[in-house]
Amino acid sequence: MSFQIDEIRLRQVAMPLVKFFETSFGRTYSRDMVLVEVVSNGVSGWGEVTAGENPFYNEEWTESAWQIVKHYVGPQLLNKPIESAEDVAAYAKHIRGHRMARGGVEVAVWDLDAKLQGIPLWQRIGGGARPEIPSGVSLGIQDSVDDLLKVIEKELADGYQRIKMKIKPGRDVEDIREVRRHFPGIKLMADANSAYTLADVDRLRALDEFYLMMIEQPLAHDDIIDHAVLQAQLQTPICLDECIRSAHHAEQAIRLQAGQIINIKLGRVGGFLEAKKVHDVCQAANIPVWCGGMLESGIGRAHNVALATLPNFTLPGDVSGSKRYWKRELLTEEIVATPNGTIKTNDRPGFGYDIDMPFLDSITVRQETIR
Ligand code: OSB
Ligand code: MG
Fold first, then answer.
1. Is 304 in the pocket of ligand 1 (CB under 6 A)?
2. pLDDT tens per residue across span 75-115
3. Cα 160 to Cα 18: distance, rounded to the nearest angstrom
4. Most CB within 10 Å of its CB: which of 101, 278, 340, 347?
5. Domain count, the chain
């Protein structure tokens, strides 16, 4: 069933986080995200651009995403015959980088395609390996280790299956030692967001004694080779995040043994088509994957839930309940985690939730329609 996109409605929304989120590259207090609505014959598909407010996680940010979608991705896609959502990434392939901006549009078309077929997004992408996804939490760097222990206590009480803690030089070995002392049996991992170099190998080796599930992206955001050098000297498995932007990168990392696990983020790799390719490359190489997060609103979060139903998403990811992020979700219902630390899929067409349009309008700070 062929369709075409008649118009693309872009919005920028402002959503304050319930608590700031601190990584090795800084604090985020409030999200400014770009939402994409693609319209075909009166039916809307929705996507979220996962770029941050500043170009600190990768090179993209809210404003760059807006410009890329408006001037490059949108005009390429409008009024073209689309046989399937699989075709969409190709229209923007000539654009270098800016995968989050491209991905925000691409995932919206997948949602539209699923809605036009009357099937859930998880089914449309070929997922459905599990009816509920295992859910973990990503904890920002806290003001004190005591605060961290309290937050972990709460997340475990809520049922979450694994704890990821952000680390940076000076807030690593001793923090993790304390966490392990209090919680010897939990599934625990650390995410460095590129805060180290090979000169820190001794400090990173000191983490081996805490039997972490993995350490995520310890080295540079664009490095694969040094991660291979580091992995050869660590017992802790390395998980790659920032440096895997494509299935080709995943192949290279696997060939070099730069890590043993990959965190797949829809935006970082440019949408569902590439995310599925990364998934498949990893599955063929026996590399487990899990779904990362970028502090998404309910729209991006629901897309992540669909993604994590693909078979090789066997590890608990960073996709957790809405209320950990927002006082009020932009959906008519929150995305909730069960007491077992899972998030259930549902059988509604598309991404599975309704948008609270009056609320969305009230938090929209910029709007533009491309025809
Ligand atoms: O590295 O996984 C990361 C948030 C913003 C930027 C990068 C990362 C993160 C997270 C949070 O870890 C995941 C989430 O709770 O959405
Ligand atoms: Mg990460």
1. no
2. 999 999 999 999 999 999 999 999 999 999 999 999 999 99
3. 18
4. 101
5. 2
* DSSP secondary structure string for all residues of 283-316: HHTT--EEE---S--HHHHHHHHHHTTSTT--S-
Q: Specify the CATH number for the domain of residue 193.
A: 3.20.20.120
- 190 with 336, same domain? yes
Structural domain containing residue 138? 124-344
Residue 1 is predicted with a pLDDT of: 73
Q: Which ligand gives the minimal distance to the CA of 292? A: 1
Catalytic residues: 166, 265
Residue pair 296/321 in contact (Cβ under 8 Å)? The answer is no
Q: Would you say the CB of residue 241 lies under 6 angstroms from ligand 1?
A: yes
Nearest CA to ligand 1 atom 9: 294
Mean pLDDT of 159-182: 98
Nearest-CA residue for ligand 1 atom 12 is 138
pLDDT digits (tens, 9 = 90+) for 191-222: 999 999 999 999 999 999 999 999 999 999 99
Alpha carbons 345 and 305: distance in angstroms, whole number: 7
Q: Are residues 27 and 172 in the same domain?
A: no
- Specify whether 150 is located in the same domain as 30: no
Q: What residue spans of the chain are helical by DSSP H?
A: 62-68, 74-77, 88-91, 99-117, 121-124, 145-157, 173-182, 201-205, 225-231, 247-256, 266-269, 272-284, 298-307, 357-363
Q: 349 lies in a domain? A: no
CA dihedral 289, 290, 293, 299 (to 10 degrees): 110
Domain check: are 110 and 168 in the same one?
Answer: no
